[in-house]
Amino acid sequence: MAQAIRAQKAEAIAHFQYEGRLISDIPFGNGHINDTFLLTFEVRKMGVMKVILQRMNHKVFEDPVLLMENIIGVTTYLRNKITKAGGDPDRETLNVIPALDGKPFYKDSFGGYWRSYVFITDATSFDQVQNPSQLYQSGVAFGNFQRLLADYPADTLFEVVKGFHDTKARLEIFKKAVQEDVMCRAARAQQEIQFVLDREELAGYLGECQEKGELPLRVTHNDTKLNNVMIDNKTGKGICVIDLDTVMPGLAVNDFGDSIRFGASTAAEDETDLSKVSCSMELFEAYTKGFIEGCGGRLTPREIELLPMGAKAMTYECGMRFLTDYLQGDVYFKIHREEHNLDRCRTQFRLVKDMEEKWEIMKEIVAKYYDY
């Protein structure tokens, strides 16, 4: 397997519009889905240029061509907006490096799909919150992402993963996985299965609000973890939202919610000691303040009001996805131990329970930063 990836990667490197001599090629990041590499080129001995090369997981993203059309459309729009505002489009949005044929991707002779970006230097993405300021800055960055794309026609984007945040549909998939129990694992997860079933009404809540016209369709990121924001090493400010694979039509409250379930947790996503897992109200407040500021008044009062619900619903949904994958045999998320996805689901459900206990505090924090 490793030898095949090396061969594919070498072929891909030869087919992008790179300059200079390749002097370093290392694995990069710890994403669950794609294979990512950091390449360093020496350019005529005048300096170095770093780029990101990724092999897209086309089992997860079934149409990489349309996925890249989404990314090109959104990043081109963002570049124009950032330039007009006097910003730096080379650092404040992703910049795709085309293949030799001009396409934003390369399909290798093995059938794999690759794409490449200019690496944003002098900035860092963090896998876990080190201080509230980082989470505040990520809130500003994701809020700014919403603000800049508020007028982008969301319905023109390709739905990369059908029903990605259709929590009600995911609940049915979960029930089917429980019933089929193809890996004979349901017996080991009875408490977690019951947790999902006890909160079925949560699965349809936001979708019903959208159907009633209470929540508008927007361009959403759909993977708004802290590590998908580049934070400038000098200023400490969030400068660029990255990992745009799942940019598609969706709900702003879901983007907010996914940030909270990851960033406001007091423990890692796969922590096995659940006594360490809670939703920090200090971190919740830091992100909420940044997000509302970053949105710059582009969200409706109802969207702001439902931000806490977005946090609870996305945490519930993510836990259900981890549990579904565990029951189905770990076919979606990369795992590093036998019950990794079961551990992941347990942390999410612990967070949901903690949010339920702190519900009124969460609503008060949102009201503090927006008078709806």
Task: List the main descriptive attributes of the protein structure presented here.
13% strand; 372 residues; six-stranded antiparallel sheet; alpha+beta; three-stranded antiparallel sheet
Note down, in words, how this protein is organized.
- This protein is of the alpha+beta class and 372 residues long.
- It has 13 helices and eleven strands.
- Strands 1, 2, 3, 4, 5 and 6 form a six-stranded antiparallel sheet that branches. Strands 7-9-10 form a three-stranded antiparallel sheet.
- Strand 9 and strand 10 (238-241) form a beta hairpin.
- The longest helix is centred in the C-terminal third of the chain and has 22 residues, at 307-328.
- It is globular.
- The relative contact order is 0.13.
Concise account of the structure shown:
The chain is α+β, with helices and mostly antiparallel strands and 372 residues long.
β-strand percent reads 5-15%
Task: Identify the overall geometry.
Answer: globular
Number of strands: 11
Q: H/E series, N to C?
A: HEEEHHEEEEHHHHEEEEHHHHHH
Strand and helix layout:
Layout (H helix, E strand, L loop, with lengths): L1 H12 L7 E7 L7 E8 L5 E9 L7 H21 L4 H4 L3 E2 L8 E2 L5 E6 L4 E2 L7 H17 L18 H14 L9 H8 L2 H12 L6 E3 L8 E4 L5 E4 L6 E3 L1 H12 L17 H15 L5 H5 L1 H22 L11 H18 L1 H11 L3
Antiparallel strand pairs: 1-2, 2-3, 3-6, 4-6, 5-6, 7-9, 8-11, 9-10
Helix pairs in contact: 4-8, 4-9, 5-7, 5-11, 7-11, 8-9, 8-11, 9-13, 11-12
